Amino acid sequence: MTFLTLVMALPNMNFAQDHSGLLEIISMIAAASAQAQNLIAASHARAAAVEPDLRAFAYLPSEPPIASAGNGPLAGVAVGVKDLIDTADMPTTYGSPVYADHQPNEDAWVVSRLKDLSATVLGKTVTTEFAWREPGPTRNPWNPRHTPGGSSSGSAAAVASGSVQAALGTQTLGSILRPAAYCGVVGLKPSFGTISLKGVHPLSQSLDHLGLFARSVDDAAYLLALLAGGPGASRQAPLQIYPEGVDPFPAPRIAWLRPAATPALDESQSALLAQVAALFRDAGAIVEPFTLPAEFEQLPALSATLCGAEGAANFGALVTRFPDKTSARLKALVERGASISATEYISARARQLALRADFTRALAGFDGVLTTAATGEAPEGLSDTGDPGLCVPWTTLGVPAIALPAGIGPRGLPIGIQLVAPFGEDLKLLRIAKWCETSLAIKTGRQQSE
Question: How far is it, in rounded angstroms, from Cα 76 to Cα 193?
Fold first, then answer.
């Protein structure tokens, strides 16, 4: 099977199926060809049917939720909300037995915003413990013996399975982009501070991003434009809204970044990147090899310092109070973070912000970066969510990044690409991603016709 067969064009495999996307649902509502409650009921039926094996939801009501009132732009759209994000009408456990019976008093800002837009929260999707590394029960929709990635495990799996049209996720290291790659869906991490984190449990305040999963670039762009802003968000101006889809960026100039040796890419992932680069050149893009300056090699260490120090501050008292209800992985984070000095932390924060500005200068002459979000297909087993190392640099910089499904590996699981742009260039990134998505789809059509 060629590596350049788009995931969405493949025959259905296990739970991963091609269901209606967000903009398709909106079109159906606009044309009065479907009613919101019927669409929500259909999504709930799909989720309930696959849930015993997929286990994407930490909470899924036994009956379909009542569709949100009003005729807002997301009427009829079913959304999964990561169980790190507060919901007043559904339990919120943060993936931890400490909060097994927790019911927040109010919705997170982003949940309130979704409801104001007439979206319906179908259920709470599984997160790893406090979005750190202790896996939940969710399985990969393409093969239940494999991880869906983490920490936004349930959100990626729910979108891939067709249970919801979109889902919210968070990323502190690689928690949106890696699960998206493993599950064969679009994952979008906007620029740091784009969507309010009010009501989202913190892991590392210098690194935490709120983002989303969808089935296409157009769906992701539309939803981001509606959700950008809110209390504490540093980028209040909303993105332009494209109800008819994003305008592709014409013939972008792409910096093809060869990832560092660690973590090493699988042979199939390396081959995919090379084939995609060649395809984009054939489609009219300029694609040139690119290497970041040596100073950017600091990013993983800076991330470890920031996440460790802030994680220790956020969870130190918790692991002391509940030693039997917190994992060894969370305890190790706290122990490591407690050893980080104030000087180290302040220095890391300063370097993080300086490198963000340096990245914009380093990328001068290019529109975006082509790389990968994962080393290859999702690893077998559910005891680990995979290596986030290929996402860490972009999360640390706070720049926008998007994962696109681009192929199938030798074990029949999705593999993809990651596109990155300078800080604040979210709309430009989405337009580049639309161009890339379209080019991949055109190539797929040619191959099938041949």
Answer: 28
